[in-house]
Amino acid sequence: MTTEAIIELGDAYLERFPGCAGNEECDDVRDAYEIAKICTIEYLIAGIDANAVSPVREAFANIRAIPSLTDEFKRMIGLQALVPLLASLSSRAEALHGIIKTLPPCIIKERFSGALAYVTNVIYLIGIEAGIA
Q: Which of 99, 109, 103, 101 is nearest to 14 (CA)?
């Protein structure tokens, strides 16, 4: 993902759904965060073990499922493979953070920063549940 791609995506969304002046609780704003979150998740999971993609997506979508999904990860790929998987996700999150930091202050930066904070927390929770964080 590049700075330009993030800006283009954000601009396209804002053009179609400009938001609600002064109302951060409106659907356009929530939807914009959701789109940023989906894009962030898909960026992070690009290139991970194909067997782990579905459970990782599910963990990001449903925090309450993390305990059972962590058990599933352990059964599917083993604890030894879960450590590098989480390291890979964390590394890609750090790289994305570097990209997001280069954005000028704007609503797009806010949305992607929020999405990144969310996914970083989920990665941490998976690590805690697995006993490796």
A: 109
Task: Give the residue numbers spanning the domain of 115.
Answer: 3-130
Domain count, the chain: 1
Query: Whole-prediction pTM value?
Result: 0.85
Neighbour-count burial of 116, counting CB atoms closer than 10 A to its CB (0-12 exposed, 13-18 middle, 19+ buried): buried
27-45 vs 107-130: helix axis angle to the nearest 10?
A: 50
Write out the DSSP string of 17-85. ----TT-TTSHHHHHHHHHHHHHHHHHHHTTS-HHHHHHHHHHHH-GGGHHHHHHHHHHHH-HHHHHHH
- Nearest CA among 72, 46, 54 for reference residue 129: 72
pLDDT confidence of residue 11: 83
Read off the pLDDT of residues 13-69 as tens digits, 9 standing for 90 and up: 777 776 665 656 667 777 888 888 999 999 999 988 888 888 899 999 999 999 998
Q: Count the Cβ atoms, other than its own, within 10 Å of residue 94.
A: 11
Say how many C-beta atoms besides its own lie within 10 A of residue 63's C-beta: 14
